[in-house]
């Protein structure tokens, strides 16, 4: 998982698929993007997650491609008000649901529509996972 900047965005990086990353972006919704086209890679932290179910996680993200961005849900997440649209998505909701369901990590049970990128980072760090240099993606 990659987390950007002041913990305002998160993505799932599939190193098994040439480092393609999945997330929800405000202008395009859920899609996959290539790692080499990332802007400001120095703003990201990379956390290696257990990947025994990576193909299932990849397929779930693939099934979400084209889902519109949930701007109202993001506002609800920021103010801890459960306002979201099941037909839309945002980055931390997609990452939380995918990691919760398709890794062996024991993340706390939360309402996915209220999970922020910072909460995702803390959950992963609390599992004992340490960030690795981004250069590992170029190997």
TrEMBL record:
Gene3D superfamilies, per database record: endopeptidase domain like (from Nostoc punctiforme)
SUPFAM superfamilies the UniProt entry points to: Cysteine proteinases
InterPro entries: Papain-like_cys_pep_sf
Highest taxon listed in the record's lineage: Bacteria
Name the UniProt record assigns to this protein: Permuted papain-like amidase YaeF/Yiix C92 family enzyme
Organism: Arcicella aurantiaca
């Amino acid at each position: 998982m990659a987390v950007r900047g002041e913990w305002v965005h998160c993505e799932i990086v599939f190193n098994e698929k040439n480092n393609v990353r999945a997330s929800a972006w405000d202008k395009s919704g859920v899609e996959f993007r290539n790692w080499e086209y990332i802007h400001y890679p120095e703003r990201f932290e990379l956390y290696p997650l257990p990947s025994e179910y990576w193909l299932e996680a990849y397929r779930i993200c693939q099934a979400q491609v084209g889902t519109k961005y949930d701007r109202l849900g993001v506002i609800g997440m920021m103010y801890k008000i459960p306002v979201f649209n099941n037909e839309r998505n945002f980055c931390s909701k997609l990452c939380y649901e995918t990691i919760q369901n398709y890794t062996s990590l024991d993340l706390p049970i939360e309402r996915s529509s209220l999970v922020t990128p910072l909460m995702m980072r803390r959950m992963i760090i609390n599992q004992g996972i340490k960030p690795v240099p981004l250069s590992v993606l170029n190997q």
